[in-house]
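Before relying on records like the one below, remember that each one covers exactly one chain. Contacts with other chains, cofactors or solvent are not represented anywhere in the record.
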Amino acid sequence: MTVDRLCLAFGNQVVRSRVGRALRRCAQDLAGSLPELSERLTRQRLLDNSDRVRRQI
């Protein structure tokens, strides 16, 4: 499952519900495209967000 793969990729540092919400938003943004693109966009958005959080600490 995509959410499981993304949770594992982030070492379970991102809460599963947040990953699911991000994936749904990305799928909506990319409506009509390949599901693989939604997973890639979700991964990038989570990475971008985690970078911003680290810079604020």
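Residues 24 and 38 are 8 Å apart (CA to CA).
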